[in-house]
Amino acid sequence: MKKLKVLFVAIMASCCALPASAQFKFGVEGGLNASKVSVDHFNAKNRTGWFIGPKVQFSVPVVGFAIDGALLYSQKYLQVDSQNELGETATIKQDMPCLDLPINFKYNIGFSSLIGVYVSTGPQYSWNLGKKSLYSDDEQYGSLEASSFSWNVGVGVNALKVLQVGVTYNIALGKTGEVENLYDAATTAKLKNNTWQVRLACMF
Q1: Mean per-residue pLDDT for 76-96?
Q2: How far apart are CA 32 and CA 181, in angstroms?
Q3: Largest distance between two CA atoms of the chain
Q4: What domains does the chain contain, in order, with CATH numbers?
C-alpha cells in the first residue's frame, strides 16, 4: 500500500509539470455508482448509489492529452448475505459514504469542434466517511478500511465544448474490508468493492 501511495503522489506532482500552454477548465461532475462487491463464501448483491463534486481539467492543445482531477462525495451501499446449513440467512446492510480523489490521464479525439471521444485511466484514493464496523442485528461481523486505493479505466464523449459523458470501471487494488460469517466467526473473508460509474460533467 505504501508503494501505491508513493505512485499516487508522483502522479499528482506530474500535474504541476504541464506546459504553460495547457488549458484549464473547472466544472462539476456527478453520476451513479453500481457497486459490485466480491467476497469469498458469501453472497453479495450489487447496489446503486451516486456521487457529485467539483472537477478540474488541464489539457494540452493540439495533441489531445489531458489530466483531470475531482473531489467527489460518493455514496455507496453494501449488502452481504450469510447462510447456515439449515438455509437460514442473515444480512449485513450498510451505507458507505466516501470522499473520492480520482486523478485521470485522458486522450481526446475530436471529430469536430463540437463532438469527440476520450479514453481515460488513473488512480483513485478514497476515504471512508462512514462507520468502520459492519453490523447485523447490533452484532459486529467485520470492519471497513479507513481508506482505500483503486484504479479507474473509462471511455466517454465530449460534446458542445462543455459536456463530458462517460462510463468508468473502478478496480479495487486492495481490500475494502473484512467480514465474518454470521454463523461461523472462524470464517472470515476479504471484501473488495469494484464499481461501475456513469458520469456527467459540465466544464467551463
Answers
A1: 77
A2: 30
A3: 67
A4: 2-203 (2.40.160.20)
3-state secondary structure of 9: helix
Q: How far is CA 107 from CA 38, 60, 61, 156, in A?
A: 31, 10, 11, 11
Q: Smallest Cα–Cα separation from 164: which of 99, 125, 106?
A: 106
- Element holding 16 (H helix, E strand): none
Mean pLDDT of the chain: 84
State residue 36's pLDDT score: 83
| Residues ≥6 apart with Cβ < 8 Å to 87 | none
| Pairwise CA distance, residues 64 & 66, whole Å | 7
Q: Return the SS3 of 61.
A: coil
The residues, ordered by sequence, that sit 6+ positions from 177 with a Cβ below 8 Å of its Cβ are 134, 142, 143, 144, 145, 190, 191
